[in-house]
Amino acid sequence: ALPEKKMVFKGLVTNKEDMNKLIVTPLIRYPLPGGSALITFEKAEVAQRIIEMKEHVVELSCGEELEELDRCSVRVQAAPVDILLPSALEIGLTRSNRSILVSDLPSLGICEEVLLDKLELFFSKTKNGGGEVESTEFLDDAGQVVLTFAQDGVAEPLIARGHMQVLIGKGKYKLKISPCMSGDITNLQLQPSRCPRTVLLAGIPDVLGEELMRDTLEIHFQKASRGGGEVDALAYVPAGRHGVAVFMEDAG
């Protein structure tokens, strides 16, 4: 049994031959226990060097010149970050015969419920080519609306038109009408992948404030004399708390 994985699926049509292709962009949520940090370097070789050193002594003097007896340090362990990425994906698609997808919606500054009511009112009228609307749903991630009619035979003529001038409030707007597709993942295969530029630091004691500890870790690991390098990002979770790091596709 695999843990639940949240992903973002993006379709990109370039020509007719590519219409059945799907681009998958992973969006991985990685749990972080208390007393740990994720540090991402600009260069992969720096991360690899930090991992190979395994244990690091981090000075807590924050760069101040202190006597030897007044200095304080902590030991933290460095480890690689391994995540699961999809290697194969199969989706079963179903086209609804009673639903339409309405897109190209204008930005009118009205709330979601009001917009849905206006669309339902317009598409429920037979003179507009519609019929009784059974349900409406706003898709937050896409800014689109799914309208489902109570009867068969209403959706197809609207889809065939492609676009419609829809009255919303006091204005008319050209909206795109598309078929509504739903899908279920029928097969998903995952493979382990190691983040090349990110390192997990564990065993960090709760001896400094959150911001001060974050700054101290960044100062330590960006110094070449300690095996480090330029830091791209750093996330720290104090002991007694839990966090979630989100990994996205590395555009660099």
Automatic annotation (TrEMBL):
The UniProt entry, under InterPro entries, shows:
Nmi/IFP35_dom, Nucleotide-bd_a/b_plait_sf
**Pfam families, alphabetically?**
NID
Xref: Gene3D superfamilies: 3.30.70.330
The subcellular localization recorded is:
Cytoplasm; Nucleus; Secreted
Coiled-coil regions listed: none
Write the record's keywords in alphabetical order, separated by commas: Cytoplasm, Immunity, Innate immunity, Nucleus, Secreted
Which cellular component terms (GO) are annotated to the entry?
cytoplasm; extracellular space; nucleus
For this UniProt entry, what is the primary localization, expressed as one broad class?
cytoplasm
Q: Which GO terms describe its biological process?
A: innate immune response; regulation of innate immune response
Q: Where is the NID domain?
A: 37-135, 145-232
Q: Which family does it belong to?
A: Belongs to the NMI family.
Report the protein name in the record.
IN35 protein
The species is Fregetta grallaria
